[in-house]
Design a protein that fits this description.
Layout lengths: L9 E2 L4 E6 L6 H15 L3 E7 L1 H7 L5 H4 L2 E5 L10 H7 L4 H10 L5 E4 L3 H12 L9 E6 L6 E4 L9 H17 L6 E5 L10 H12 L4 E6 L1 H4 L6 E3 L2 H21 L7 H22 L7 E4 L5 E3 L6 H22 L5 E2 L3
Parallel strand pairs: 2-3, 2-5, 3-4, 5-12, 7-10, 8-9, 8-10
Antiparallel strand pairs: 1-13, 6-7, 6-11, 11-12
Helix pairs in contact: 1-12, 4-6, 5-6, 7-8, 10-11
Length: 348
Amino acid sequence: MRLAHGFLHYASPRMISIAVDAMGGDGGLSVSMAASRRALDHIPDLALILVGDSVAIHASMSEWPDALRSRISVVDASTVLAADVSPAHAIRSGQTSSMAVAISQIKSQQAQAVVSSGSTVGLMALSRHLLGMRPGVERPALMTQLPTQAEPVWVLDLGANVGVDAQRLLEFAQLGTEALLALNKHHPKVALLNIGSEPRKGPDVIREAARLIEADPDLNYCGFIEADQVFQGGIDLVVCDGFAGNVLLKSAEGAVRLVMKAFSGPEVSRGYRKWIHFFTRSRLRQVYETLDPSLHNGAPLLGVEGLVIKSHGGSSAKGLVHAIELAFREATTEAKVKDPTVGEQVNE
């Protein structure tokens, strides 16, 4: 898994097709169309399958250049999955939704990956139902990268599983380690998110998960880690349930916004503001932009038989572009395994 903070141009003998749930997320079609156009502008070997209201999609790109429209396919979907959908309802009544039809593009081999900003619960349920799970994996997990004082750290789960047992946390550690090994991260260090670093701290499920992870010879378990320690670095993978992971991510984003506001508010005098700006603002801006959801938007749904990327529901067009680019990069990597000439990187 790789998160990119810029666009890379690729030379490949064939296009990489990404299905986009054009109706998902808070911004709906307007955000999806703006992101699609920008992604096509930046990635020459990208083709998009836009799934949703076909009439509205065609109208939205009526003034696009022919060169861009030629890399767009439109698949009609009659409904949109609600943000608060339950897993059972998503499977029972969501088969005609833009999310389900987009996922089906992988199953029919029309697309190499799918991107959706829709319901996390719905995406997990429909991906499991339509694509199936990898052998030995019970539940999928969302994984993404966060900055630290040293090397970036990967965190899972980020919201796909709100409450899990110890066996699922072990499974997450195994999935995350496998993903990091694929990124040439040798012997990645794994820690469990907890309320303290002492062995006896935390709920029973966390302590039982620690016992299971430590007993797995293929995992490099380094013990518990507290939330504030995550950003110090030194750990490659932090394992937690989706509730804790989502709180960790959003708390970090909110804290940086608070600091930025404190150094730029009207109560700060002009003289001090100039001094603060010179000495700290550039660094704070760098930190904020690193944590900005739009710059690390896109979380792979690990464990399913297919490349599924979850985009933040409230993502801007800028953020959705990054999720599409992540899907493109990962699909290119998978294609390169089958054909080494695919995805040969060239100069930007």
